[in-house]
């Protein structure tokens, strides 16, 4: 019984995720278009348009984003990138990169999320010193095995390769991304995503259920915020503890 509200809540959640994906693509395109409007002469803009179309972003949304970035749309507020820093319970560091047209709204939301889950928002430089800007390339291990990718990655300028449960991650410096992607493309290796990220120098273990729960809920809240583009943290949570936390959250979700 009561499946109607539950199903509707899930549909709303899915639609919210889709809306945010479209919104982030539009903001990134607007920022890239600030440098030059024509994708033929702006490789960064061209690449973002390709990724946006791959995710199903409508052409009119892309066109509006370009006009917003070039001030052709004079009524639109400009998009700015702002990075916020802070700590979750247990001392885990968070680096939050946002894209916003309303700085007051964004800082208020970020501060509220930190506070709600027992964290602390820090000043600029509080944790950014321990993170480095990298590109992360994702490859599906069900299509291309980790071992086969590992053999190839040593022939590239990639800095690291990591095996995760659902994907193989290749870490590369921003200036080497194009050459690494081209290398794998020439080898007919499918890359299902590549994105900019902040990689921590050191990690902090969470071994307490309550702290792991607050961290996970904080992470979810940041991911759901309309202005948040990249969320980076330096936590380590054991698979067993994370499973316990996820099951607890699932049992307490979509209850009516």
| Uncertain stretches of 5 or more adjacent residues | 1-15
CATH superfamily of the largest domain: YebC, transcriptional regulation domain
Apparent shape: globular
Lateral strand order in the biggest sheet: 3-1-2-9
Structural class of the helices, strands and pairings?
alpha+beta
**So, CATH architecture of the largest domain?**
2-Layer Sandwich
Sheet-strand content, in percent, reads 15-25%
In the CATH scheme, what's the topology name of the largest domain? Alpha-Beta Plaits
State the distance separating the first and last CA atoms.
Answer: 10 Å
Order of helices and strands: HHHEEHEEHEEHEEHEEH
Number of helices: 8
User: In CATH, what is the class of the largest domain?
Assistant: Alpha Beta
* DSSP strand count: 10
Summed up, the domain count is 3
> What integer value in Å does the Rg equal?
20 Å
Largest beta sheet, briefly? 4 strands, antiparallel
Q: Report the oligomer.
A: single chain
Q: Could you tell me the mean pLDDT?
A: 86
Q: Tell me roughly what share of residues is in helical segments.
A: 40-55%
Description:
The protein has 256 residues and is of the alpha+beta class. The protein folds into 3 domains: 3-69, Arc Repressor Mutant, subunit A; 80-128 and 205-219 and 232-251, YebC, transcriptional regulation domain (Alpha-Beta Plaits, 2-Layer Sandwich); 130-200, YebC, transcriptional regulation domain (Alpha-Beta Plaits, 2-Layer Sandwich). Helices cover 45% and strands 22% of the residues. The chain is built from 8 helices and 10 strands. It has helices at residues 3-33, 43-54, 59-69, 103-116, 146-153, 177-186, 209-224, 239-251, and strands at residues 80-87, 93-100, 120-122, 131-139, 160-163, 168-172, 193-200, 204-206, 228-233, 235-237. Strands 3-1-2-9 form a 4-stranded antiparallel β-sheet. Helix 1 (3-33) packs antiparallel against helix 2 and helix 7 (209-224) crosses helix 8. The longest helix is centred in the N-terminal third of the chain and has 31 residues, at 3-33. It is globular. The chain starts with a helix and ends in a 5-residue tail after the last helix. Residues 1-15 have low confidence and may be disordered.
